[in-house]
Amino acid sequence: MLKRVLNRVKQRYNVSAAETDYQDKWQRTVIELVSAAADYTAAEAEIHRAVSFMESFPEWEPVASRLERL
């Protein structure tokens, strides 16, 4: 399920997505999304759309999220 959702996110939105922690745990993971754009507003909007899409799956329960600008 996780790989399928990550592939859909990458195809639908201008983001890179990867599982970056807890690969050996069955019910826990850390997913990182990265977006690059000409300005922060566009990149953040794309990230928010991708996160909303991922949260639409009832099998998932988001615990925390954090947004960083580089």
Topology, please?
Layout: H1 2-12, E1 16-21, E2 30-34, H2 40-55
Antiparallel strand pairs: 1-2
- Count structural domains: 1
Distance between the termini: 30 Å
Number of strands: 2
Overall mean pLDDT stands at 87
Contiguous uncertain segments of 5+ residues? none
- The outline comes out as globular
Order of helices and strands: HEEH
Please state roughly what percent of the residues sit in beta strands, choosing from under 5%, 5-15%, 15-25%, 25-35%, 35-45% or over 45%. Answer: 15-25%
Helix/strand structural class: alpha+beta
Main sheet summary: 2 strands, antiparallel
Please give the radius of gyration in angstroms. 12 Å
Q: What's the helix count?
A: 2
Strand order of the largest sheet: 1-2
| Percent helix | 25-40%
Organism: Jeotgalibacillus terrae
InterPro entries: DUF503, TT1725-like_sf
Pfam family, one: DUF503
Protein name: DUF503 family protein
